[in-house]
């Protein structure tokens, strides 16, 4: 089964989250949690971030803060349970930078498998990996496919609702609202304006756009591997982002960050509503398990 990356499913009618509902797993009492799982229809979200160098302006937990913030905003509109902060990420390719938290590839997989299993054991029947760190996507695809190895009483979905980077510019991005647009071309990138702006909207005390030029400004995509497109090689990130900083965060603003956060949260709301209505994946998983046990 291919990775379930749901971003364009039809929006399903659903009730907004109940006023006062707390979606955060770690903040609930046992009784609160039992009620929350029922209210969420068994849907639990694992916001996946990372801890790594994020240019001279952003905190190393930028992806972690962003993934949690997007989930928190989305849960206000469509209730679900949010798993505690999860920073076991695929950061091997940026482990050369001071401050990066990097675990062995085996532990990265095992932690994800154990975490999802624990979510299922606690009543989560539809588990959504809401990713905020692009390098996690290979790990997630491998993991989701591996869930077919044996039956589970839950289904796992994955999505990447992060706000779009506008560098380099594309016709699709140009159609997005003005409030989401960068202050100048090539401003976005890893550690650049887009996510620093988002951090200014949620944790302004942690960002330093005035330091944006402390590291060399390198436009996204300006350095390429000396190989044909589509060829994979391990040190790609090391070559293309030597300081782990792409773009220019100096023009970041809380206004843009708020617009980007709202856009990403709305994307996640669409995904959650579609997953709550979905019957195809659970039924297909059961059918697959039967055929795997008795191949035709």
Please tell me about this protein's structure:
With 296 residues, the protein is of the alpha/beta class. The chain has one domain: Creatininase (Rossmann fold), CATH 3.40.50.10310. It has helices at residues 30-39, 62-77, 105-121, 136-146, 171-174, 193-202, 236-240, 254-277, 280-293, and strands at residues 43-48, 81-82, 126-131, 155-159. The chain has a four-stranded parallel beta sheet, sandwiched between helices. Helix 2 (62-77) packs across helix 6, helix 2 packs across helix 8 (254-277) and helix 6 crosses helix 8. The protein is globular, with a radius of gyration of 20 Å. Residues 1-19 have low confidence and may be disordered.
Query: What overall form do the CA principal axes indicate?
Result: globular
Count the DSSP helices.
9
Return the structural class.
Answer: alpha/beta
Provide mean pLDDT, rounded.
Answer: 92
CATH class assignment: Alpha Beta
How does CATH name the architecture? Answer: 3-Layer(aba) Sandwich
Kindly provide the radius of gyration, computed on alpha-carbon positions and rounded to a whole number of angstroms: 20 Å
- Element pattern in H and E: HEHEHEHEHHHHH
**Could you give the order of strands across the largest sheet?**
2-1-3-4
- Compute the number of strand runs: 4
Straight-line distance between termini: 17 Å
Number of domains: 1
How much strand content do the residues show? 5-15%
């Amino acid at each position: 089964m291919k990775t379930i990356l749901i971003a364009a499913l039809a929006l399903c009618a659903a009730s907004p989250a109940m006023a006062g509902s707390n979606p955060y797993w770690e903040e609930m009492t046992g009784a609160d949690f039992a009620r929350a799982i029922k209210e969420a229809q068994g849907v639990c979200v694992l916001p996946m971030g990372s801890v790594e160098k994020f240019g001279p302006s952003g905190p190393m937990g930028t992806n972690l803060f962003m993934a949690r913030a997007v989930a928190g905003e989305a849960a206000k509109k469509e209730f679900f349970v949010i798993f505690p902060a999860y920073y076991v990420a695929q950061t091997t390719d940026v482990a050369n930078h001071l401050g990066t938290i990097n675990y062995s590839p085996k532990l990265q997989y095992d932690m994800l498998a154990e975490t999802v299993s624990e979510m299922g054991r606690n009543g989560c029947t539809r588990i959504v990996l809401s990713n905020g760190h692009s390098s996690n996507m290979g790990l997630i695809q491998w993991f989701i496919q591996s869930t077919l190895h044996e039956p589970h009483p839950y289904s796992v979905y994955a999505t990447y609702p992060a706000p779009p980077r506008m560098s380099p510019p594309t016709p699709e991005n140009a159609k997005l609202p003005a409030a989401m647009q960068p202050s100048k071309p090539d401003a976005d990138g890893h550690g650049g304006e887009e996510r620093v702006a988002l951090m200014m909207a949620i944790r302004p005390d942690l960002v330093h756009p005035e330091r944006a030029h402390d590291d060399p400004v390198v436009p996204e995509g300006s350095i390429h591997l000396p190989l044909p497109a589509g060829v994979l090689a391990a040190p790609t990130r090391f070559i293309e982002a030597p300081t782990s900083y792409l773009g220019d965060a100096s023009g970041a603003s809380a206004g843009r960050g708020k617009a980007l956060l709202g856009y990403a949260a709305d994307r996640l709301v669409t995904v959650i509503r579609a997953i709550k209505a979905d019957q195809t994946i659970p039924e297909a998983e059961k059918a697959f398990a039967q055929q795997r046990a008795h191949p035709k």
